[in-house]
């Protein structure tokens, strides 16, 4: 009996050792245990400040059946993906142009623009473009671009002298060396930057959708729930956004594994 | 001792100095590597530059590889003795960099494409080097999956595929265990037997191994002025240039076990300590 108990406990010790690599099943059990604990806490927490699980589930069903949660989520997601696509192209262009000293101030300025507030920015963009959709898309694209440029230029700055010298010793010219080492060599890292910054779009889209309500979106739905103090609805929408974000992260991880299988080979797990 | 004669120079350092951020790193370095001819033998040569840590060896390598321009003096390479430009000399840096996003075969193909514009020929050459360096079973692997030895062989093969007979190795023996050290020696000697024009230049702080493999040796060190003060920058004094082939100490089986070799290495150590 003691032996059985010890054999069960022994792998658990690794969960509290620095840099340890616990067995997969132990880790899965631990994660399930933590999730279960959180659920129990939610179910039996004595203070009723937070809506109960039952309330949230009911709100989720109501939002889905009567308030079009799924189409609103879809509308927000397509806008987010559109913005991300455009921002990625723009940010890659700006970042790669830093190979030429002439364009370095542009990347520097773009990177610093992430400190601009969204509300003030929206006002100026509204003066420049006509439809609400364009305003939303422009603001999201701009804001995402400046964050992406920051991450992407950091990746590029991580290029070592040795890497570039290696390409040069093979007789590759400066542009070809740049293409091989920085563009192709760092593509997986660039995708990681895009993945990490996609979350920013979700925090911004909810704000932008409340400013431009004509097209709806999950941000507007959240705003309405907030406004009428439907806390159960707010939590339900937040959980939906959380799940959508987790799914996105998974897809990005999958893309990375499929297209850049070498990317994770040297990393410690 | 195998008879030999020298032909035209393949690498010339003529009064090379380098100053970086106001600090003299290298001063008035002159050395010349001549193509060696051994009748009846199809074998190139190994020459060595020894220097203690922090002496500017890697900088010297970058100068010889054309990756850095000297502040004064000239570096000439090849039979035509042209100024060194990137790609003119094969250069295997420390830690054997490869393109991590490409498989081993693709790494070799990128290098081969320069000398063999015809894709079929490039592929044939790459396959030949894979075979010669016992890397064929690993051709589809990414560099992260290669062992240290495989990585070093791959890096050398990559440079050989695109360079003209002159190949520089920066610290090839650094941090290797005895078995790996033997492996690297084998690779270096293999490179010299690939083509009689091949010259391997070793730049290292491993005195015994570099001396054992080299036909010629240069010691990088610091000189003192008349007052006994150290002069800035590393250099090669005339008395620190050794023709090991002439001394009968050029590489041959078990050279390291011979008393002459042991005495010579001890002498070198004393010279280094005194400088």
From TrEMBL, chain B:
<keyword id="KW-0813">Transport</keyword>
<dbReference type="InterPro" id="IPR017871">
    <property type="entry name" value="ABC_transporter-like_CS"/>
</dbReference>
<protein>
    <submittedName>
        <fullName>ABC transporter ATP-binding protein</fullName>
    </submittedName>
</protein>
<dbReference type="InterPro" id="IPR050166">
    <property type="entry name" value="ABC_transporter_ATP-bind"/>
</dbReference>
<dbReference type="Pfam" id="PF00005">
    <property type="entry name" value="ABC_tran"/>
</dbReference>
<keyword id="KW-0067">ATP-binding</keyword>
<dbReference type="InterPro" id="IPR003593">
    <property type="entry name" value="AAA+_ATPase"/>
</dbReference>
<dbReference type="InterPro" id="IPR027417">
    <property type="entry name" value="P-loop_NTPase"/>
</dbReference>
<dbReference type="GO" id="GO:0005524">
    <property type="term" value="F:ATP binding"/>
</dbReference>
<keyword id="KW-0547">Nucleotide-binding</keyword>
<dbReference type="InterPro" id="IPR003439">
    <property type="entry name" value="ABC_transporter-like_ATP-bd"/>
</dbReference>
<feature type="domain" description="ABC transporter">
    <location>
        <begin position="11"/>
        <end position="247"/>
    </location>
</feature>
<dbReference type="GO" id="GO:0016887">
    <property type="term" value="F:ATP hydrolysis activity"/>
</dbReference>
């Amino acid at each position: 009996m003691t032996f059985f108990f010890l054999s069960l406990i022994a792998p658990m010790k690794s969960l509290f050792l620095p840099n340890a690599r616990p067995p997969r099943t132990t880790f899965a059990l631990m994660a399930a245990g933590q999730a279960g604990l959180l659920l129990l806490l939610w179910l039996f927490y004595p203070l009723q400040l937070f809506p109960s699980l039952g309330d949230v589930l009911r709100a989720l069903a109501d939002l889905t059946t009567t308030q079009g949660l799924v189409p609103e989520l879809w509308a927000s997601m397509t806008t987010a993906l559109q913005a991300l696509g455009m921002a990625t192209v723009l940010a890659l262009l700006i970042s790669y142009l830093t190979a030429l000293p002439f364009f370095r101030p542009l990347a520097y300025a773009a990177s610093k623009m992430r400190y601009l507030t969204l509300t003030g920015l929206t006002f100026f963009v509204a003066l420049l473009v006509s439809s609400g959709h364009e305003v939303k898309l422009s603001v999201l694209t701009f804001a995402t671009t400046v964050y992406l440029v920051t991450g992407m230029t950091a990746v590029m700055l991580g290029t070592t002298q040795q890497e570039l010298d290696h390409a040069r010793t093979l007789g590759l010219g400066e542009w070809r060396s740049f293409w091989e080492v920085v563009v192709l060599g760092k593509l997986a890292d660039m995708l990681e930057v895009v993945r990490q910054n996609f979350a920013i779009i979700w925090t911004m889209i909810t704000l932008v959708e409340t400013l431009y309500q004509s097209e709806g979106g999950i941000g507007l739905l959240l705003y309405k729930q907030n406004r009428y103090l439907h806390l159960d609805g707010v939590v339900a929408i937040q959980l939906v956004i959380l799940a959508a974000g987790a799914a996105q992260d998974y897809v990005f991880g999958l893309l990375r594994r499929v297209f850049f299988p070498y990317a994770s080979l040297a990393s410690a797990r | 001792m195998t008879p030999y004669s020298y032909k035209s120079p393949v690498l010339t350092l003529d009064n090379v100095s380098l100053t970086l951020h106001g600090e003299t790193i290298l001063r008035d370095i002159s050395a010349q590597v001549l193509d060696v001819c051994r009748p009846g033998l199809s074998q190139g040569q190994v020459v060595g530059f020894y220097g203690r840590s922090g002496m500017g060896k890697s900088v010297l390598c970058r100068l010889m590889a054309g990756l850095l321009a000297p502040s004064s003096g000239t570096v000439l390479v090849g039979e035509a003795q042209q100024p060194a430009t990137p790609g003119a000399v094969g250069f295997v840096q420390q830690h054997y960099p490869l393109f991590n996003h490409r498989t081993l075969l693709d790494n070799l193909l990128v290098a081969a494409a320069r000398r063999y514009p015809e894709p079929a020929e490039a592929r044939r050459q790459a396959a030949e080097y894979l075979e010669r360096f016992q890397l064929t079973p690993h051709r589809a692997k990414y560099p992260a999956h290669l062992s240290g030895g495989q990585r070093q062989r791959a890096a050398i093969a990559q440079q050989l595929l695109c360079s003209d007979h002159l190949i520089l190795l920066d610290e090839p023996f650094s941090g290797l265990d005895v078995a790996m050290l033997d492996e690297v020696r084998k690779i270096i000697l293999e490179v010299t037997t690939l083509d009689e024009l091949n010259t391997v230049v070793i730049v290292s702080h491993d005195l015994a191994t570099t001396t054992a493999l080299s036909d010629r040796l240069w010691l990088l060190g610091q000189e003192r002025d008349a007052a006994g003060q150290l002069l800035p920058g590393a250099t090669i004094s005339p008395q620190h240039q050794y023709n090991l082939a002439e001394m009968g100490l050029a590489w041959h089986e078990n050279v390291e076990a011979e008393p002459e070799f042991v005495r010579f290495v001890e002498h070198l150590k004393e010279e280094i300590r005194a400088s």
